[in-house]
Amino acid sequence: MRQFVRRVHFVGIGGVGMSGIAQVLLNLGFSVSGSDLKDTELTRRLRRAGAKVHLGHRAAHAAGAEVVVVSSAVAAENPEARWARAHGVPVVPRVAMLAELARLKKTITVAGSHGKTTTTAMVGMALQAAGVDPTVVVGGQVANLMGANARVGLGDYLVAEADESDGSFLSLFPLVAVVTNIDDDHLDHYGTMENLKAAFREHLGRLPFYGLAVVCGEDANAVAAARAAGRPVLTYALDRAADWRGKVLPALSGKAAQRLEVKKHGRRWGTLDLRVPGRHNALNALAAAAAADFIGCAPKKVAKGLSDFRGVGRRLERLGSARGVLFIDDYGHHPTEVRATLAAMRGSFAKGRRLVVVFQPHRYTRTRQLWRQFGPALKGADAAYVLPVYAAGEKPIRGVSSGLIIGAARRAGVAARPFTRAVDLACELAAGDVVLTLGAGDVWKVGADLLRRLEGGTLSDS
Length: 462
Description:
Blueprint (H helix, E strand, L loop, with lengths): L6 E5 L4 H12 L3 E6 L4 H9 L2 E4 L3 H4 L4 E4 L8 H8 L4 E3 H9 L3 E6 L4 H14 L5 E8 L5 E4 L5 E5 L14 E4 L7 H4 L2 H13 L6 E5 L3 H10 L3 E5 L6 E6 L8 E7 L2 E8 L4 H16 L4 H10 L8 E6 L2 E6 L4 H12 L8 E5 L4 H14 L5 E4 L15 H10 L4 E3 L3 H7 L5 E5 L5 H13 L6
Parallel strand pairs: 1-2, 1-4, 2-3, 4-5, 6-9, 6-10, 7-9, 10-11, 11-12, 12-13, 17-21, 18-19, 18-21, 19-20
Antiparallel strand pairs: 7-8, 13-14, 14-15, 16-17
Helix pairs in contact: 1-2, 6-10, 6-11, 8-9, 10-11, 12-13, 13-14, 15-16
């Protein structure tokens, strides 16, 4: 195919969504350049793949590009975007570029307030094992996808994480749409829960009449949105009647964290041996299996792909251990995610051990809306240390701070206190403890710092 566009420039190329699309375009033979404020493993990986990545934003970085891609986080006055508009170069939102890629393939999307990154990666693994050779774009690093957040396949299918946070998933027209749940998040964009549910109805309404909505039967909002969209619906669940139903059993092998016995329309479909712990991951795997089955993947091959899945970066990710203390990191930043992550920890890494949680609230708007719910959500912790709010570009809101969450946690019976210094916490840890860093910001750095201190015996700042 002749390419009239040779060079594509990404403003904010280091973001997980942007870098994945950039990787796909590189693999398709396009020349890719981009800019970001920080050098990260994602930007370094893109450089190794052939992209030209600049640090900082200057108009000269975009000069010569024939398309400029921007994320929703990029300000309108960004000099590279301004240069593009001044020179008649198309400025394309990230999701529009993803939608363009989706036009070349049959698309499976995964949307939802929680679990979409893991579920997207699981669908990709299942299809890969089944010989479908999919293209996959996911919002996290997956070891089985060459350690990256994207892969390019020669097959007919694209598996994409669909971001509902700013309504951008409404640009996609999938063949199969998985919805893991619809929870009270991103109301800073939608305003009300009703608006959020309406967006999901619209997303599912973009399915063709021969497509399929795969929705969690345990989430009333997801089921209602799917029914209202008027498209074929398949439900999955663990604890109630559904088209696909899973029963969690103890793992039989040392590699597996749990076993899932699966029934499809009441008849045995197969068994999934999962390396990732937690009830939420059992649901994610059930959704992935149902989506893969719909497009004709063989059950045994799907089961093999899911059994090989080792997780996504920053989702119950093991950082290491030192002096008998185990360090785990997770991206969870909503009360529902916090509760599910702590339950998974109690059934796996922290079983019979003291669980110390270091939590970083994410965004002032989310903290203002949900601080009361975070207290009970942290009840699974033996001790909780709460960092200041990670702003994520937001301006502070008067009266909103991590102190609200600390107070709510204490009222729920949690031993919660402000996080001060890593060295202070390091001195309080003992062999047998498990430390979980939790949040969507940079709280993982605290875990890495604690791990280094224990490994090196550095328990002071001197």
